[in-house]
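Section 5.1 Outputs to date
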Amino acid sequence: MTPFGTQVLVGIVAVASLLLGLYNLWFAHKAPVRARQRELEDELRTKIEELKAVMEKSVESIKRGSHSNPEVPDVIEQCSTSLKPMAKRLSDGELRVKVASLGDSTFHVSNAWFDVASGHKYPEQTTERKTIASETELRERIQTVLPDVKSVVAILNRKDRGGGNRSYINY
């Protein structure tokens, strides 16, 4: 190789190492953001999985006719109030929209569950027909929310496998 070719090669390597160094500096600078997003996603996963378990169990108990929970489960109430604020802190746009929507849907499930719980708590103030109607409404609301819950879990699983939108890396 000629001396000029060697100098060109050395220049290319120097520019490439400078660019790699800048990328590493930028990547290290964003590490706290990535760590915080992972914490939020883990917290979200915990809440969503608990929500999914409670909803699936309640749909089955309503189908069997043995739903007699006198209270709205804590998980439903917590998710109805905490998912929407949590969504605002997520950087992944798709996940943010789905979690905010899920927060609204969970609020409606909580209201329907309250109607069912009130009917079981105060049976003398309700009729059999109203009880069946409120349980049917609750089951339908849960069945419309469950696919959203499963899609949020799927997004989180895809992110754990290294796929999905990691938009917080681009900031």
